[in-house]
């Protein structure tokens, strides 16, 4: 039987995995925007804006702001892992470094659109969280498919797995 939110394109978990991969791909552009400019990978003020607006949108949609915030924390950490990995690569192999620098503000507009879609997909995947172990299996399958379809390298597929770790419910919420 189909769960709520299931469509011909697949489950909301599939959408979460796909959108997360697209959000991670922006990490390449952000890394290129910052490369050689002295701008640090970490921008705590921007992170706060991303987290606050994701939580606020979740609330408006009747979804769980706390869980949404955890998911976005993981998304941001994964994005930074990609940026750091690429900066390391470009430092060690300067011939692979980008010669064009996208504008950070432009990339952030794309990130904002992906954030909105991701908040919705996380909200739509709420029914799956009722059975966390099944949710984790289904999500891992989706992430594997997305990795293959997009031919993700090790850096990006590892980051994708990290970006998804709270989607089926945080393990932390059961601790203590
Ligand atoms: O917007 C940036 O500058 C990014 O590096 C992207 C991002 C994010 O994933 O949203 C990641 C790290 C920064 O600390 C802030 C935001």
From TrEMBL:
Its EC number is 5.4.99.5. Residues 1-87 form the Chorismate mutase domain. GO terms for molecular function: chorismate mutase activity. The keyword Kinase does not apply. Coiled coil: none annotated. It comes from Streptomyces sanglieri. Keywords: Isomerase, Signal. This is chorismate mutase. Pathway: Metabolic intermediate biosynthesis; prephenate biosynthesis; prephenate from chorismate: step 1/1. The keyword Repeat does not apply. The chain holds residues 37 to 212 of 212 of the full protein.
